[in-house]
TrEMBL record, chains A, B:
Annotated signal peptide: none
GO molecular function: cysteine desulfurase activity; pyridoxal phosphate binding
Family membership noted in the UniProt record: Belongs to the class-V pyridoxal-phosphate-dependent aminotransferase family. Csd subfamily.
UniProt source species: Endobacter medicaginis
Positions of the Aminotransferase class V domain: 35-405
Name assigned to this protein: Cysteine desulfurase
From TrEMBL, chains C, D:
The protein, known as: Iron-sulfur cluster assembly scaffold protein
Gene3D superfamilies (alphabetical): 3.90.1010.10
Domain of life where this protein originates: Bacteria
NIF system FeS cluster assembly NifU N-terminal domain sequence ranges: 9-127
Amino acid sequence: MGAGVSEVAAPVLDVARIRRDFPILSETVRGKPLVFLDSAASAQKPVQVIEAMTDTMRRQYANVHRGLHWMSERTSDAYEGVRDKVARLLNAASRDEIVFTRNSTEAINLVAHSYGRGVMTPGQAVVISEMEHHANIVPWQMLRDAHGIELRVAKITDAGELDLDSLASLLADGRVGLVALTHMSNVLGTITPAETIVSMAHAAGAKVLLDGSQAVVHRRVDVTALDVDFYVFTGHKLYGPTGIGVLYGKHALLEAMPPFMGGGDMIGTVSFEHTTWAEVPHKFEAGTPAIIETIGLGAAIDYVEAIGFDPISAHEAALTDHALARLATIDGLNVLGRAQQRGGVISFTLDGAHAHDVATLLDQSGVAVRAGQHCAEPLMRRLGIHSSARASFGVYTTEQEIDHFVDALDGARRLLVA
Amino acid sequence: MGAGVSEVAAPVLDVARIRRDFPILSETVRGKPLVFLDSAASAQKPVQVIEAMTDTMRRQYANVHRGLHWMSERTSDAYEGVRDKVARLLNAASRDEIVFTRNSTEAINLVAHSYGRGVMTPGQAVVISEMEHHANIVPWQMLRDAHGIELRVAKITDAGELDLDSLASLLADGRVGLVALTHMSNVLGTITPAETIVSMAHAAGAKVLLDGSQAVVHRRVDVTALDVDFYVFTGHKLYGPTGIGVLYGKHALLEAMPPFMGGGDMIGTVSFEHTTWAEVPHKFEAGTPAIIETIGLGAAIDYVEAIGFDPISAHEAALTDHALARLATIDGLNVLGRAQQRGGVISFTLDGAHAHDVATLLDQSGVAVRAGQHCAEPLMRRLGIHSSARASFGVYTTEQEIDHFVDALDGARRLLVA
Amino acid sequence: MSTDATTLYQDWVLARARAPLHAGRIAGGVTGVAENRSCGDSVRFWLKRQDGRVVAARHETEGCAICQASADLIAGLAAGLNEDRLATLWEEACGVLESGVAPAGRQGDAGMLLGVFAGVAEYRARHRCAMLPYQAYEQAARAG
Amino acid sequence: MSTDATTLYQDWVLARARAPLHAGRIAGGVTGVAENRSCGDSVRFWLKRQDGRVVAARHETEGCAICQASADLIAGLAAGLNEDRLATLWEEACGVLESGVAPAGRQGDAGMLLGVFAGVAEYRARHRCAMLPYQAYEQAARAG
Ligand SMILES: Cc1ncc(COP(=O)(O)O)c(C=O)c1O
Ligand SMILES: Cc1ncc(COP(=O)(O)O)c(C=O)c1O
């Protein structure tokens, strides 16, 4: 495990109290209490986030940046205050290194577009890996096809870890401009060795983007300690609203990059002949931002920081151990990946049963899991499967829920695999 | 006035009842009741919108499209249901012609990027006008600089209307690929003759994009009657949340366009060598969408449709008439533009007083107006001014508020212009 | 309204999925394929015609139990019904997917197909699983 | 905490904005310019030095009353104080912008500048109006 992902202490998390913060957890589904094991796709929202958003809309709202009046000033303060919070969360050197986007996907596209087309030159290469989410594959393919950048794919081991030899050989010719890798796989749960990746890449003259969509939910991330060049995450997986994501970029890199989209707020001065850009990070935030959602993200960050990342990591590690132990008792069940360092995400197949049927039968028991390709079709191909089911855990997940899930899964197996 | 903007009937709107739907209107600012005349920058939100969003987060939330379980199915239904609502709102031929974006700015950038670079060819031209918002200027400048597209600027008359002779002469050589114009000016209030623009452009072989950010709030828009090729608007000005906007595009055009961003949800099948795209409109919606905000936009559309566009237009026309009459009594006050067709937006300067000072003094009376360049720097230059103040009206604005505003404005004048 | 496990995954559905009657290929037959890209499922249909009529139908299906059963039932029906009657039955099946109610008293593969569709009705995300095979059939039918 | 109209727009602020004492250019002086792009305001400063000391300062300001008054006060101070003392005063003024409280008993242009800054403190969007002139001054100072 790299620096920037803190070692797990063992403080215990008061799950019962946490669950009271999430109104949706008292809902029933098909007559059964909801057991939500799909947090890796999108997490549920605590009242603190819901209230931050409603308070904004009920009490203190106007467009930001452009207004001189009280409501606009106050809303701008709240909006810009979240930039400080995100900078603290990631331990960025400066708030100006935080760009707000819609989600991780847009953040990666921004880099692929602006750094890729604006700074990289044809003939250079981008390295990704076999275990990337489509969000960290397709933008680079589009860059390849539009701008003559080579796309190289680092292998993973059969255990589902990044193959560092493969990475080293891809870096060897010095033509790699950017290494873009997941910090935690949304399928295998694997946490990648960020510090090693960064030092290997830097030694070869390449910059590094880490896709922290999953990692940031489970561990404390320190971009300064990691010395990573770009880091992205998405609000809705961190118990925040949809519509808001984050790009961290080192100041000098952001400065060197041309803007991505044009419009209000990202300009210095506009004439028809010539337009100048605003300072970083505003250069990358065209138009009215997702004001209410950004404020919601701020509340989500406050929420997870109040719980603390050490208890969160410890809780998820305990749940994952428990789930892996219980799943091992089910005949014909195969867990995908067996990385040393892993987060609270478990994908599996069941011999003789299709993931869709498994998911529907679990849904009939109130258990929400994901089934399919998890936006990682090339990884499915690498693993030699068409699809899998995935259970993923959040701060509100309990051991009892995992037991209920495993029992329901065993029932599904008995029905489907006769 | 063109087809697609319906004639105004005279039904009266129950403003007192409407105001009760907007909690923020009972707030005070600097000890005075809030008089919010900055709706053109961003409108306030009714409880119906707030509750649609909180209900989603409290009762029925999961990521969309990818899930087989109950929460995901239901959330997908709610999300996709809003696409139907938007299609009905604009009278689009099909729901597949509705693409969700963050805001108008992203919608225009999407077209500039995907239609501009993917379909238009170097040597073609884009026509905009002197009264565009930066959102409808800068993306085309970026296209010009990156892709060899000429940028042509149609003049406006001294009354602040689109100069149709100028437009005709710019279209004459047949090299214009796209005419991108505002449907209603955010500074002058001018409603442009959309039907005439479309028929002139089509006769010259050009497609048309209308920036409906302001227009859609004030009048019923019918994209089919207008025969317009692209139409964009932004949720937060239509009493909806931030973080959600709309691009309407004719199906055949959207089909012909390459994607804008890459990632999950917008793909058909992914391999490292070759990726295929999902069907329109999903091809243009990469990553987890703004689910909660889209559902909020749906509630906003229900809200304005329940009031009805005829009463809304009539109400705003009455307020605008009243405000113009009262403003005419203030010494040295100049209203910008005097278009025949106009919406509820009035910009003005005051001889001997700077817009900033005016805005601050109004703010001290609880009145929120905008002051500055209104993201339309070239228009300010065309009008020969550095900045102006702007009052804009919404469904909740009352005649009393306008009287209060005009009185406060006169007080500011007496103080500043001695 | 709620369907429990036994209604959707009835014995005969699972049996048909596990041991299809019409799996395989037809040498020299026309063929069509359909894929559900979101889960990797795919169905390939083979049809053989004589005097314009379909006299044999086979499928190769990679998919869930619902998709497997639906494919096998459609293959059985394709060789037995003429194309118009199969198209009519298909419309009826799509109606059942909306209503969730299968008409009473229908026998054989047609009855079973309508039963599968009734069972899957309330799982909207699974509708594509049930419908995929017909797309492959239609493609093969057009090809021949 | 609330400042009413008379506190921010006091007579002497408005008077100074309307009839500046130090507006104009200096032939052969060094110059610096600062712009607030969001509203189109701009300030140009001219400085003239003798033996390293600033002996004359003038400004051309296109802007609101706050910006005008601030520019004129800074121009008055620039010719009277040495650069270090003006920099110190500026730091104090920025502090007042945060605190909203001007120190008691300060006289002349310095006292007025601190007064303007105290008045504008709670209008954060207007801080740039008050601060813009100093940026222009600094540029001119560096240029010379
Ligand atoms: C005419 C016009 N176009 C475009 C925009 C941009 O809207 P948004 O900032 O929501 O993208 C606005 C509002 O700011 C506008 O008034
Ligand atoms: C590893 C990883 N990267 C990227 C994404 C994309 O996130 P979003 O859809 O919010 O852009 C996800 C989640 O879907 C993910 O798990």
